[in-house]
User: Fold TonB-dependent heme/hemoglobin receptor family protein from Parasutterella excrementihominis YIT 11859.
Amino acid sequence: MKPFTLTAIAASVLATVTYPSVQARETPSNSETVVTAPVVVTATRTEKKLNEAPSSLVVITDGQLEQDNPKTLGDALLDIPNVMMEAPDSPVFTRISIRGSDSDQITYLIDGVRQDNYTMSGNRPAFMFADPEMIKQIEVRRGGGSSLYGNGGIGGTIAVTTKTAADLLKPGRDFGAKLKAGYNNDADEFGQAAWLYGRKGSVDAVIGFSHRDGGKVVSSSNGKRSKTPRDSQYDSFTSKLSFTPSDDSIFSIGYNYDENKLDQGRTDNEAKYRLKQHRLSGSWEYSSGDWVDLVVNMQYMKLDNKFDGTSYNNEAYFKDKFDSYSINTQNTSIFEFGGTHSLTYGFDASLNKQKATDVYGRPDRSRPKSKGYDAGLFIQDEYAINPYLTLTPVLRWSYYNRKPTTDNNDKFGLASRSDSKVTPGITLTLSPSKQLSFYASVQSGYRPPFLDELYTSIEYPEFGMYSVVLPNPDLKPEESINVEIGVNGDYKSLFSDSDRFVFHANVFRDRVKNLINAGATGDMDFTDDGDMILYYSIDNVGKALKTGFEASADYYPGNADFHLSYGYLHAEDKNTGEKIPGLTPMQATLRAGYTYKPWNVNGWYRMRLFKGGKSNLETAWNSGEYKQLGGFATHTLGLTWKPQIKDWADFTMTFSVDNITNKKFRYLNGGYGVGRSYRAWLSATF
Assistant:
């Protein structure tokens, strides 16, 4: 087996906590309709062909992002079975669920570095921020496993890779530019983006800027725009510089800035949200022979979040500050001993700090000052016993520490917590041919409580109340066991000389115990101003069992392309035996397109199908009984035209109609969908 090339390393900048793609769905280009078989960096962190990667993964490529023009990262994931969203139209409040998980049970990665700022309670954002315009690829792994990703990720992993100049340059060019403008009717949103990029000698550089300005959303509840006044704006800036001093080494540094503004409500009852995020990242990649295949990633992230509700209460205001320092590194060594071993080992560490101030500039009790530390060591051996059978054991040691740093720890009972855990995993892969592989895996998961689960409170200014969460000295981290059996296939020339058929199917059983939740203690207190303080305690409330099936197939016969995916999920509370409400039991997507090459036109159709069931909406407040919501299907038609002006520019023009029948529906998680709406955009690459 040959060692990694730098091309493979660059593709695997997801580093120590990465889990790359196994099911990639491309949009056919004008020059080649049949998609070539991608080479991916797999769950075992080594270079493999698509049909050899042993896991349930879905990849959203830059071609699909360009065609669909999603408003947010969450909006780009709506086609993936057993992946559900709340508020996918909002960069601030998007929440993702994988196989019924909570959003804080997912590991989020950007260019290989874990993002730890996404779980914020109350009026805080609950997601990572990455503008789809800046994204090259999104990888979604369904199913947990801390042995692969470190603390967290017991529900799944979402990994984002941002664009570089190499992703944007036209063949044979050293410099280029890209301009894009569009309109999304569903959010009354206008968007613009601009890129400059180039390559000279060993230096590769890119800068990009994106601006979105939107208003009220077209709700599926009535097919009309919301009556609630709303104004949103999202700006994103990215820059990345890479230096290749030799064929075996790459250095890169990047800076990303995201700013979101959202004003919602009437003038006398308006909530204003402001979020600014800075990310400075760097990486070094070095390869030498069979023994050294090194990747090092570092990141500093600063998040400023502000909520302003002073229009209805002069104390409804806070500012949050969140700082994060992260590093991860891995090396792969290849050697022969009774077969071929690809031994991958490394470590990762992160330090996170948070604090908040109120309208008077004083420390805000809703976000006590605190810090957290996470670290881990791992080793993994991909052991190719023979050309057909591979065994991949992995072992990880994880550690965490949470510490309040306020002056009033005793008043609120805040206390430090720390613990460690060893999480093993193992995967067996059988490949009877180059086109077909089977796999079976068992992975363990470990999720310690986040800072805002231990040290936080929620303010209710209209009622003069505060809810303070007290730590539980006996609190245990959440743990999971994920069992999965699957098959991958990738066949060319199956029914004709130029077709290709790709499929993936798996069954899974995910068990999660020590679920973390906040419950009232029954105690209360009063502030100096007479406001009531209600105390809550973080407790382990039980365990859940999730079983299901996932399958997808892609077929490319000549100029056409077809995609079909299906997911089934059954989740129950093991304490009560009851089905967990709010989770979609079955979900399917059908997509079909055809490219007419003489005109460079691609027409496509998409259907999303959701089965109804028990929602998380109670029939009456605190009744414990939940509403049943019906299933629904939405339909989309789109047309993409790619004209070219030789030696000058390539254009892409797309128009689509979503929810053609204006179907009125509501997701089982309580969120509303979008009524009939239109999207149109134009891009030019020079």
